[in-house]
Amino acid sequence: MRTPHARSPLFRATALALIAATAFTTAGCAKRGKSDIPYIARDVGTLYTTARQRLDNGDYKIAAALFDEVERQHPYSVWARRAQLMSAFSYYLAHDYTASIQSAQRFLSVHPGNRDAPYAYYLVSLGYYEQISDVTRDQKITQQALDSLGELTRRYPNTKYAADARLKIDLVRDHLAGKEMEIGRFYERRGLWLAADGRFRHVVEDYQTTTHAPEALMRLTETSLALGVPDEARKAAAVLGANYPGTQWYERAYKLSQEHPPVAVAAIAPGQPIVPLNSTLSIPTKSKEINRDTRAAPVTNGSSTNPGNPNPGQ
Fold it and tell me: How many helices and strands (H and E) does the chain possess?
């Protein structure tokens, strides 16, 4: 379930730093004219200052349109380059994430080596991240968020944006695992044991550090018994006992093993975890804890949290 994050002083402070950096140099390029603002020829300083004032006043959509005008009317000035990124930032604040992504991607296509490229990648990632929907709905956007966050960490691993992205990747993976569990439980309720088994096994093998791994192992115990393969049920229960011995999921798996007593499974008792020999399943000894009530991870900069905007080059 999507839980929007609160924007922090760092987010606003660094954005203001981007606005303030308005030295005149040569750069930039043209884009399509996308604006509801009537075309009135104005000097670049007036346009940029007006856009900044609108942004400061919270008129984010108007600010975005004015930043677009800077680029449309003065495509070869350095202000055009900055206006592209500020347009993406303004659309993000206005919750128009599609437009924000498009503006940031346009900036990257024209200025891939710019010093502010990491922030542009970050805005793209946030645009997808903020659109993540409940696990009962299609998760295409969630996968796009994971892909864009991964690209940011690969390209710029030592930036503060990558540090925040790595925390968000954990949350996104947990969300995708939750979707697999939702589908698996759906199949299981209808007695489609093989289909359910495949979903739960996918969680165990590909999302084993998420909060859904213990339940997935317990469900594998259920589906394996239903499919008549008690050895697989024994393996799932044993891995569950070895890694999560104090959980409700292991208690349930142990109870199932007592009700359907293959000898090897019946020997597994709560508090006495057994790691199965030659098991095809594996879970790390310590599962990473994820706070699912907090979707926005902090970017550390003093006492501030949440995403920030870089100070662009001159």
Answer: 13, 0
User: Mean pLDDT over residues 222-228, rounded?
Assistant: 93
Rounded CA-CA distance 295/301 in Å is 19
Please calculate the CA angle 153-157-160 and round it to the nearest 5 degrees.
Answer: 95
If 0-12 CB within 10 Å is exposed, 13-18 middle and 19+ buried, where does residue 218 land?
Answer: buried
pLDDT given for residue 77 in this prediction? 81
Residue 204 has pLDDT above 50, yes or no: yes
Torsion of CA 64, 66, 72, 77, to 10 degrees: -100
Q: What average pLDDT does the structure give for the chain? A: 77
Q: Please report which residue ranges of 130-159 form alpha helices under DSSP H.
A: 140-155
Phi-psi region of 306 (alpha: psi -120 to 50; beta: other; left: phi over 0): left
Length of the chain, in residues: 314
Question: How far apart are alpha carbons 269 and 128 in whole angstroms?
Answer: 45
Buried b / exposed e over 138-172, threshold 16 CB at 10 Å, is: ebebbebbbebbeebbeebeebbbbebbebbbbbb
**Whole-number Cα distances in Å, 34 to 1, 95, 100, 102, 294:** 32, 17, 13, 11, 35
Which residues lie below 8 Å from residue 159, measured CB to CB, with a gap of 6+?
A: 118
- How far is residue 115 CA from its own chain's centroid? 23
Please enumerate in sequence order all residues whose Cβ is within 8 A of that of 270, keeping only pairs 6 or more positions apart, or say none: 241, 245, 250, 251, 254
pLDDT value of position 33: 39
Question: Given pLDDT bands bounded at 50, 70 and 90, which one contains residue 163?
Answer: very high
Number of Cβ within 10 Å of residue 226's Cβ equals: 16
Q: What is the 8-class DSSP label of residue 40?
A: -
- The beta strand positions in 99-257, using DSSP E, are none
Please report which confidence band the pLDDT of residue 311 belongs to, taking 50, 70 and 90 as the band edges.
Answer: very low
- In one-letter notation, the amino acid at residue 285 is T
